[in-house]
Amino acid sequence: MELIRKPIHYTQEGKSIFDQFYLDEDYNVPDQKEDVQRIIQGQAELRAEDIRPVENYVKITGKMYFTILYMTSSGDPKPAVLEGKLPFEEMVYAESDGNETFFLRNVRTEFTASVVHSRKLSLRMMAEMEIGRERIRDEELTENVESDAPVYRKTRNMNLLRLAVSKKDTYRIKEEITLPGTKESIGQVLLTDISVRKLDIRMGQDEILLRGEMLVFCMYLSAEEKADWIEQSEPFEGRVVCDGVSENMYYHIQHSLDDTLADIRLDEDGEMRVLGIEATLNLRMNIYEEEEAEILSDMYSLEQQCVFDTKETVLEELLMQNQSKCKVTERLSLPELKEDVLQILHSQGSIQLESEQHTAEGIRVEGILHLSFLYLRGDDAEPYGNWQGMIPFSWLIEYPDMPEQVNSSLSYHVEQLAVTLAGSEAVEVKAILSFEVFLRRLVPVEVITEVRTEPLDMKELSERPGIVGHIVQNGEDLWSLAKKYMTTIDGIREINGLNDEKVSQGDKLLIFKENVSIL
Fold first, then answer.
1. Which segments constitute the LysM domain (predicted)?
2. How far apart are CA 223 and CA 260, in angstroms?
């Protein structure tokens, strides 16, 4: 006997690890920067440079990049910016056999800066990380068996997820924004915030198609050192070469935006009225195709005894690839800002996921939308302010009758955010939170690994009755009965006048040994 095998290449995800750490540092204002009178706002971004397992830990090293918008303490106060970076190294406990790959699935940061004195600041950063883990596995599934003697086979049909492509790549976005005629020309860029919105990813033939928008906020000083700002969405589209993919494949792609840059350029009239925008879109891609597989699960022969060894493995079938969008609408009463806000200049948001529960209706996620906005005040001495707050949310990613044994990969980001004034003491918040989910069913499978034959016990067979009356018990089917009584499914059906292979508990059957003829 010889087993016929089929290789399959797939990923297996482990349980995510959650970690939180803090950085506290004193920061000396560089000599070329003006004295700090008051901090308006600060923001920080975590960039991991290396993630690797070290014994029973995951070592994550990188830098925290921060930006601080402040008012100078000169005779004519004006906004200015401090930028810097702080290295970090975090050891996260994670038992591993050394064959897993670790990666950052979701990251959120909080940053505060306070004035010690005009040339020294105290910085405090908090980072929350969800660390994903996966391993690439190669299995051989047994599809059939070749034998000189007739062998009866039982197979199991599955639509398996086969990993076609697993890679990291980048796409460089380059766009230009021309200032409207009502805006001052740019003398010095102070603060920029560049983010990706409405990103649509499609599979093409040997390529990945990208389309989305970059939301660009830029605060700057004119040549006369007058503060101004612009916020504008700029569409982009492009492609990333990816050999081996096709339109009908499924994917789970994580994306992040790094290395954002806004530089001043001349327009056609030689004036500094063009912003050159550049950014790197990082893509971590697992791309799959569904593959029909017929897995040999059992066998027997009427001429010899089939003895085989098995091992248990867990395979995956795709349930859902979906982007679910949660709308958040909230009116916030802010009496502390009474008659203080003239205009909201720019808003930012981030998601803190507190729970993810699998239910019969789907995946229930609960969390907090952290919100901040930069605003213009009616005080010439302190013309800018920054508000921070949070809005809880709950959302169901629907999948009716969801099985118990599933694995889900969940990524999330703020797709749209708008904060508008609603009177003198309130703001209205409208946000769309996007959840990308890749849901798979976990299917335990006994894979036949080795098979051998042994002679039948002829004495035991001869002592068996030629005709048996059998009442079907719970869990029995025609296959198990045919194997047990050394006959065939077709033989049982013919004798009992069955049109198909369905039997129910309590059914009464006559079963003949295969070599017993009906007179």
1. 468-511
2. 24
